[in-house]
Design a protein that fits this description.
Rossmann fold, about 40% helix, alpha/beta, elongated
Length: about 375
């Protein structure tokens, strides 16, 4: 099948949608499909197989998009189009939301990475949500990555074919050659008696950055030796609001006096990300909106077999079992996270059980399975 992917992010841009698009393209190619990727000018990746063709020709996401997409579809004789939707990745421009109604030829399936709305004009209000529903209703098929978004769109009238296909980890558990855990921890100045907590992902309002820092402050007040390793880039390439939020976190770190306990890796190679995660004793992901399988950072922590402390999901996720494969606590509860860290520090059996449970759960989210399910949606649309 000749598949076209449209994505607002792609390597070397920093962002989960770009990482997802790269991994999905490679997995589809492994299944024998040809994949054409339409994205922004300046994007490129060295690890794409010959069956993947990158078209980094979009200088801005605007009203000319539909015309350019139609030409692209015709030039490559594409059989199906897959739009990787995240409003911020497309500069919040509504042209992307209206794309299905202006297409001709190949059917268009939309993968919703979230249901955030685009910008229209001041005080647009409900009209902004209407554009998201319009995209879902006019698309030939809809893919959601998590149960929360599935329930939301099922409540939207006239949303057609709807499939739930999770994302996988964008970071494989593959540290650099010669990786030594003790030496890597020493590199960060972590003493043997200190608990090293890892946080992975960009900082934004929904991810509980303040809770991370307040947890660290609570641990210091309780004289529990711990440090926090902030793994990866701080803000990403697409969401301009992330920088202002990161500045707030910096101010909180300074105000609470925990500068010496927070370690920043910055944006690094995937192998270094893997090494940093594997060096941690636990991963702390205090999402304000609850744990979700749409979070690439959560999926990476699972793939690395880490004991994970995170927040109770907003909807029932039967795969997550408290104290079996994850340690759950309420959102916005730094004391509860600190107590969880203290518990894991003293209970090696619990740490081992959580690590084994995370590794087992990660097996459900392999890229071959994700690509097979996605190709199945495409096949239904072209039958």
């Amino acid at each position: 099948m000749r598949v076209g992917l449209i994505t607002g992010e792609f390597a070397p841009m920093q962002g989960g949608v770009g990482d997802f698009s790269r991994e999905l393209s490679k997995a589809l190619a492994d299944l024998g499909h040809e994949v054409y990727i339409l994205t922004r000018v300046g994007c490129g990746a060295d690890d794409l197989p010959p069956e993947c063709y990158l078209d980094p020709v979009i200088d801005r996401w605007g009203w000319s998009l539909a015309r350019r997409v139609r030409r692209w579809v015709k030039a490559h004789d594409l059989e199906v189009i897959n739009l990787q939707y995240q409003a911020a990745a497309f500069g919040l421009h509504p042209a992307v939301n209206l794309l299905p109604g202006r297409m001709a030829g190949a059917p268009l399936a939309v993968t919703f990475h979230d249901l955030k709305v685009p910008y229209l004009f001041p005080k647009a209000g409900p009209l902004r949500w209407w554009t998201v529903l319009t995209l879902a209703r006019r698309a030939a098929g809809v893919i959601v990555t998590n149960r929360e978004d599935q329930l939301t769109l099922e409540r939207g009238r006239s949303v057609g074919r709807l499939a739930l296909i999770p994302i996988g980890s964008n970071i494989a558990a593959q540290p650099p050659a010669g990786y030594d855990r003790a030496a890597w921890r020493e590199r960060w100045g972590v003493r043997p008696d200190e608990t090293l907590l890892a946080y992975f992902g960009f900082l934004n309002e929904s991810k509980g950055g303040e809770d991370l820092i307040e947890t660290l402050h609570w641990l210091r007040n309780k004289e529990i030796p711990a440090k926090l390793l902030m793994v990866g880039g701080r803000t990403g390439s697409s969401d301009a609001t992330n920088q202002a939020y990161a500045d707030r976190i910096d101010a909180l770190i300074s105000r609470l006096g925990v500068q010496d306990l927070v370690l920043w890796t910055g944006y690094t190679s995937a192998q270094e990300v893997s090494a940093n995660l594997l060096s941690a004793d636990a991963c702390l992901l205090p999402y304000r909106d609850g744990a979700s399988f749409r979070r690439g950072s959560f999926m990476a922590a699972l793939a690395h077999g880490l004991p994970i402390i995170t927040t109770t999901p907003a909807v029932d996720l039967h795969q997550l079992r408290h104290r079996r494969n994850v340690y759950l606590a309420p959102p916005a509860a730094p004391v509860a996270y600190g107590e969880a860290v203290a518990t894991l520090r003293e209970d090696s059996a619990l740490r081992e059980r959580l690590a084994a449970g995370a590794s087992a759960l990660a097996q459900e989210f392999g890229w071959e399975s994700i690509a097979t399910l996605t190709a199945g949606v495409f096949a239904d649309l072209t039958a």
